[in-house]
């Protein structure tokens, strides 16, 4: 039987009225669909595509409504996935056209998935259920409600058109749904994304880290560079060509995706560093997802865009640019340190002088805590002192 | 992933103050100096753990790391858990429910035997907090 699949990405959940925007939309991280982000080394869409291929699906088309110029979208492309970028207004029309195309090419059954949620569906029982029930369209339902996965008969174009024109919210004819028993993650927020990583570490999903298990519970991708003084506590994953510099600690189910950099003495606890991200020296990153110059705290359900490149920044996406960037950093390191110490020392002396001689109108009752400017700047020696316990 | 090197399980005393910590360290010193040491500290009996005890744990982990080994903790008492969380040193260790599981974890990853990572929950709305 010829079975094909259409995956829809960057499409807002049908029951949400909000249009897709860059910030604070569900299922997005900085405008990128969570389903396109990598989990333990591979984009989630590849994991889903591979499961479909293993189940005998002949061809997979992706209709993407997310901005194709966004970083990391390129990572999700693969030769065996037929990729079509469309605008969010045109996505349902494009899906309908894609359905017609795959049917023309000979598909008898078409699986339509909106990503969206990550669900581990047993494809064979689903297809068998669809055929046994003689449904025109079958929706998959999880314990906590329906998910946007449908099986459509190739010969029922009207049912498919009706479903797609109604943005997967209504079936043309009522049909018995398929009850899913497998793993489901709604992937609405960064917290869901982190939960997916943790569930994968604890073998609750079929996702396995892409790399070699160098020690029990510690996976490392090809070309990852880890300093000898780094402490890796299982479970954790270091992606290919990632760098973890001296004195760092990677712990509690953290995942450092490919080409990311963790600078000296930084603690990464229960967090994910998305690909091509840099996190600065002497930081304490906990329960967060970092990437594309922003931090999303899972604990506080808050998002923060960071301009200061010494805290969080992006690593160039091409190897030539990365080499140039590393070379420039190396050459300018000593002059930068000298200037930093010079300016830092002056500021420190100024603030100490201010503290010793308060202004005449100074009222101690008004001041409840020291001003931010008066705090000691985070020079490398201070950071080293702070991080000392973690380096031992 | 299979390993034939021995795993040494050592039970920590009830009170881990400066004196006891030094004594304990002397006991485990030969194991720390082994090639790629594999150690498990059982903290089930620990009722008191002070800064000297935490420092001793950090010293041990740095020693085993130098020799490409590992130190894992098992059966943490509530008191030990509190002190390790307070000093934020708990994240430096793999922590298991029992010594047996900790010892087994040297030959293969046992996700179910590890102390669970806190489950993420959406913070309650301000009105609910006030109520």
Short structural description:
The complex is a heterodimer of chains A (392) and B (131). Chain A has 392 residues and is α/β, with parallel strands linked by helices.
Structural description of this entry:
The complex is a heterodimer of chains A (392) and B (131). With 392 residues, chain A is of the alpha/beta class. In chain A, strand 4 (38-39) and strand 5 (42-43) form a beta hairpin. Chain A has helices at 44-54, 73-76, 91-104, 123-132, 157-165, 190-201, 319-356, 380-386, 388-391; strands at 3-9, 28-29, 32-33, 38-39, 42-43, 59-64, 81-85, 109-115, 118-119, 137-142, 145-153, 178-179, 184-185, 212-215, 218-220, 225-226, 231-232, 236-238, 243-244, 249-251, 254-256, 261-262, 267-269, 272-273, 277-279, 284-286, 288-291, 294-297, 302-305, 312-314. In chain A, helix 3 (91-104) runs antiparallel to helix 5. Chain A is built from nine helices and 30 strands. Chain B is α/β, with parallel strands linked by helices and 131 residues long. Helix content of chain B is 39%, strand content 16%. Chain B has five helices and six strands; from the N terminus they run E-E-H-E-E-H-E-H-E-H-H. A four-stranded parallel beta sheet of chain B has the order 1-3-5-6. In chain B, helix 3 (78-86) links the parallel strand 5 and strand 6. In chain B, helix 1 (18-32) packs parallel to helix 2 (51-66). The longest helix of chain B is centred in the middle third of the chain and has 16 residues, at 51-66. Chain B is globular, with a radius of gyration of 17 Å. The N and C termini of chain B lie far apart (52 Å). The chains are: A alpha/beta (392), B alpha/beta (131).
